[in-house]
Design brief:
Shape: elongated
CATH topology of the largest domain: Heat Shock Protein 90
Structural class: alpha+beta
CATH superfamily of the largest domain: Histidine kinase-like ATPase, C-terminal domain
CATH architecture of the largest domain: 2-Layer Sandwich
Strand order of the largest sheet: 3-4-5-7-6
Order of helices and strands: EEHHHHHEHEEHHEE
Distance between the termini: 95 Å
Strand content: 5-15%
Helix content: 55-70%
């Protein structure tokens, strides 16, 4: 009950309401509480079950499959995994990554096999070249020395001098052949003359070799660096990469002009080899080059990767080819 006076009069207003009508809705709501709590619990369990089956369990399966892949079991990622769309997208991305890894591993195996065969072929070639060249020349020198000794013993001084002069000339030819063989194994200009002169001599020798085969190939060497020496591993890698790129341009690209450039950019060492040859369509993945037999490009890429560098290929049919290899400043060994 509520009492309120009326102003300006001696009146009172009385309001009364039965207690049952006031507390009835509250009591009725309280009686529904357990039912509402039960429904809420059931909904929570359904949501948790749905989340477990569509999110948590698929993620655990993906984690197990990824762990198996890390141990070389690539087939683990081929298993079907249910879940929400985002889980499926993640699984597809991991599956594509595994396919790239498998392709890269297959490419490396093919490259190593070709590299081993190339090494054996090169060893056989060098053995044959040494046997038929310097070894035979040294045998002939030994025979001429014996003849000279016999001439001296008989008092034929003039004949002995002729033989000695011939020996001197033959010795010069043997030394030249041996330097050529050694140069094929290790670029002597890199040690004797330095980094930039060695690259310049490489460009010149490539042009001379092409001319000897009847080609009009012109090779230009440009550099935008001073005479700073870099880490020996980097210098050798740059030399070998330039050597392989020049070989490709001369033998396969049908190029008439090749430009070899070495420069520094933002502290990095950049080697660029450009030609005006027939060009080609670059592959999206490097393992494609091994399947196509282009092991030279794979070798260039691997040499760069070993020192933290990167290879970029820009080419198109009929538009020539440009290879750019960048080595980070941390690999150059320059303080």
């Amino acid at each position: 009950m509520t009492v309120a006076p009326v102003r300006g009069a001696d009146w009172l207003v009385l309001l009364s309401e039965p207690v049952g009508e006031l507390l009835g809705p509250i009591l009725r709501f309280s009686s529904l509480g357990p039912i509402i709590a039960g429904v809420a619990m059931v909904l929570s369990l359904l949501i948790l079950t749905f989340g477990w089956r569509t999110i948590v369990a698929p993620l655990q399966q993906l984690a197990q499959a990824a762990a198996q892949v890390s141990w070389g079991e690539h087939a683990a990622m081929d298993r079907s995994i249910s879940g929400v769309a985002e889980i499926q997208e993640l699984r597809n991305a991991l599956h594509a990554m595994v396919e790239r890894i498998e392709g890269y591993e297959a490419g490396i195996r093919d490259y190593l096999e070709a590299l081993t065969e190339g090494q054996e072929s090169e060893r056989a070639r060098l053995a044959h070249e040494l046997h038929d060249g310097p070894v035979q020349a040294l045998i002939a020198l030994g025979q001429q020395v014996e003849l000279a000794e016999q001439c001296v013993a008989r008092g034929e001084t003039a004949r002995a001098l002729e033989l000695l002069e011939a020996l001197r000339e033959a010795d010069t030819h043997v030394a030249r052949d041996l330097r050529r063989v050694i140069g094929a194994l290790r670029p002597i200009y890199l040690d004797d003359l330095g980094f930039l002169p060695a690259l310049e001599m490489l460009a010149r020798s490539t042009m001379l070799s092409a001319a000897a085969q009847g080609s009009d190939l012109e090779v230009r060497f440009e550099h935008v660096v001073d005479g700073t020496r870099f880490d020996p591993a980097v210098e050798l890698a740059v030399y070998r990469i330039a050597q392989e790129a020049l070989h490709n341009a001369a033998q396969h690209a049908q190029a008439h002009e090749v430009v070899v450039q070495v420069r520094r950019a933002a502290g990095e060492l950049v080697l660029t080899v450009s030609d005006d040859g027939v060009g080609f369509t670059p592959a999206g993945r490097f393992d494609s080059y091994t399947r196509a037999g282009h092991f030279g490009l794979v070798g260039i890429n691997e040499r760069a990767r070993q020192l933290g560098g990167a290879l970029t290929i820009r080419s198109a049919p009929g538009a020539g080819t440009t290879l750019t290899v960048t080595f980070p400043e941390s690999a150059l060994g320059v303080s």
